[in-house]
Amino acid sequence: MRFDENADLDTSNIDDLRGSGGGGVGGRVALGGGGLGIVGLLVFFLLSSLSGGGGGTSGGFALPGGLSGLPAGQSADNTQIAESCRTGADANSNLDCEVTAVVNSLDGYWSDAFARAGQTYTPPRTNFFSGQVSTGGCGSATSDVGPFYCPGDSEVYIDLTFFQELEQRFGAQGGPFARSYVIAHEYGHHIQNLLGTNRQVRSGDSGPTSGSVRLELQADCYAGVWGNHATTTPTASGRPLITDVTDADVAAALDTASRIGDDYIQSNLGGGRVDQSQFTHGSSAQREKWFTTGYDTGDPARCDTFSTNNLG
């Protein structure tokens, strides 16, 4: 995936919280009297937390609201990204700018999609943080939980070092479009929040056909829908930021989807036993299927995971 080097970037919907007093945890948080590293926490959150309902959070990895003992009052300093992320050329060489460009593209697509449906789209803010963060509606969290969306404040939160963890700990191929899938998935949760879909899910719901799984698979599908339109969606600059998405890019995104399926996490990072009754995000095959559904059709209406008995 490449960005148009001459297209302008817009950093106005990005809040850079790094360096605002949120660091210092070192990627660990005490839970139940013991410290867990990223692998342990990801398994815990995947198996025991609601994703997407009520006042909790939504994401490729679920986050229980209200973790305590983390700093509040963080403030954004966007000076650096505003100065360094000006054009698509910057997005091709700088991760901060790459994510900014993807956010621009996502806002462009969903704004148009909502307008075509006679609805008004309100973009989320995307927060870059380091180590730990305090949200406006879902309590506090560390980077161990991975990227997440908070329905309580309608914002996306991401420690960009997550992408390195995804490749090193999970063995994902990585690459710009795979990283874009992660961001687009969180945006999918924002769309669900705007439409009220997340409020259909009962807190604590789990299982292979649960509301939590349906919510996550729909977010994967929405991510694929955006991917279908990524090279044709103009942003505020009046031109598409993304110039090409290759078959290899799509394969890398599907590889990432497969690495964050409940069965993969349980088998490879959680002791080796797959327990479908604890599924909250869907299997690897399901996540690949629904991303592909969105990517192949480019139609959000094909992402209705709540009215089908066949989740894949």
Automatic annotation (TrEMBL):
Lineage summary: Bacteria, Bacillati, Actinomycetota, Actinomycetes, Pseudonocardiales
Spans traversing the lipid bilayer: 25-47
InterPro entries: Uncharacterised_pept_Zn_put (IPR007343)
Membrane topology: Single-pass membrane protein
Domain of life: Bacteria
GO cellular component, one term: membrane
PANTHER family named among the record's database cross-references: INNER MEMBRANE PROTEIN, PUTATIVE MEMBRANE PROTEIN YPFJ
Key words, A-Z: Membrane, Transmembrane, Transmembrane helix
Protein name: Membrane protein
Location of this chain's protein in the cell: Membrane
Main location: membrane
